[in-house]
Amino acid sequence: MELFTGAEFGFLDGSGLDGIQAGTLALIVLVGFAAGWIDAVVGGGGLLQLPALLLVPGVSPVQALATNKLGSIFGTTTSAVTYYRRVHPDLRTAIPMALIALAGSFGGAVVATLLPPAVFKPIIVAALVAVAVFTAVKPTVGELTQLRHQGARHYVAAGTIGAIIGFYDGMIGPGTGSFLIIAMVIAMGYNFLDASAKAKLVNMATNLGSLVFFIPTGHVLWGLGLALGVANMLGGYTGARMAVTRGSKFIRIVFLIVVSVLILRLGYDVVVENF
Fold first, then answer.
1. Which secondary-structure segment (H or E) carries 3?
2. CA distance 223 to 267
3. What PANTHER family does UniProt report for this protein, alphabetically (predicted)?
């Protein structure tokens, strides 16, 4: 299999990598499309992208996380615009929530360079199991928007969700969109479609918040990130259109599938790292 040098395609850019195989590059582009589609519908695309980036020789976990954010921001921006044009989410809630999430994501990115993600994985797996069980046994949850809070309490709830999940996204990442959606469904009372539309705006901000830290510190692999970005845009546009067309029930089904895969993937990591 042909081996490309980083200088030809801009993938190495001072990263110290030896090269990238054509098959690995093709896999990353394919994964980028699939991740963009999943992120647009329910979130969780990082579950695919992060392991794919770690297949590239010499890529560190922090470089993979940073490069994943660069690719993802193209997809989340595309799906956010698509949702906005078709669903018209309430920006009075989404924009403040996104700004708080951006700040939280910056803080999480700083922590990502200091603490191993393995410290938090068991907690994340437990939370995902609880979310999956609740969604499965409550088939009507997320079908209709029935807001649980009014006035200031509504915005406090939105800001709290943005801060906590934004911090998580900057620090670890996988499943952020899923956590945002289920938090807005359960804690705030949105249906799955409305929650997905707002989650894309917030997720776009969390990706940006991470990049504000990762770009100046030199952790981003630009060639790989831009290749992922193009694939994410195509996947994000396709996924958002499908989600809007098929509605909340479709999103709920995909949500349960993605959360189940997240549980298996992160649960496997916890077992391997602790036993």
1. strand 3-4
2. 31
3. MEMBRANE TRANSPORTER PROTEIN YFCA-RELATED, TRANSMEMBRANE PROTEIN YFCA
